[in-house]
Amino acid sequence: MMLWELAFSQPDAMHRLEWVRMTLGGTIFVLSRMPPYGRFYTENEATLYSPGSWLPPLGRLQPLLRTGVSLLALLVAVGLGGLGTAVALLLAFGLLDRYLASLSPRLWNNVFHVHLFLLGYCIARAAPLLAPPAQAERLASFMLTAMQFQVGLVYLLAGISKLRVGGLEWFTQGRTLLASTLFRGTALGRRVVAVPAARRAMGLASGAFELGAPALVLWPAMHPWLAVMAISFHLGVLLLMRISFWHLWVFFPALFITP
């Protein structure tokens, strides 16, 4: 059975979304404490702020907003406050991230999926207040399915962007991998990419995974294997290239493994 056939009938969808909620809270808390949301941009707001932004400069309010996001994230992670806390976090984290985009429009954190997951959780959590239980469970299943589709879309677009920029040579020659690893990779990574056959194998493996992962997303029976492969892929990239993209793969146990 394929994923679209289960879109409205995934078993224990709301229970699984509660695991997503815990992951969301922990992820947003960690993100909000990281340097991109720190003092540098606020202290240099007058220089960096985009004059075309609809959002007014926050100035000294930014640290308060950042602290509020961190506290709300902790409450969501432990399940306190219910739907109201989740909606407040959705709005506050969206505002904080939009503010950061106004200060660095060409270097925006790639956390769009986190916002979508939180929005989907809020919709599923609100459904029992507005619809009969059976319909609310169907909507929760649909939100879970949409999150899984979003993961497949992230990988598909990553693979397509490599094809657009570098063509098939991106995967078969590994020159981009070589340059990136030499620039910011680990000592182990630099030794590995120094071997032409190894970096070509890395390029081919990357292409096969990113372009093939969406097919595995559509096949629920393969979801646990997809999660294991994806986490292993990202840990390997982290070990060699210091690129983790952790705020995506931490959701995989909740989305693809949790029974």
TrEMBL record:
Q: TM segments?
A: 71-95, 107-127, 139-158, 201-219, 225-252
Under the heading InterPro entries, the entry gives: HTTM_dom
Q: Does the keyword Membrane apply?
A: yes
Task: Give start-end of the signal peptide.
Answer: none
> Is Membrane among the key words of this record?
yes
Task: Specify the domain of life of the species encoding this protein.
Answer: Bacteria
Q: Which UniProt keywords apply?
A: Membrane, Transmembrane, Transmembrane helix
Domain HTTM positions: 49-246
Q: What is this protein called?
A: HTTM domain-containing protein
Name its species: Hyalangium minutum
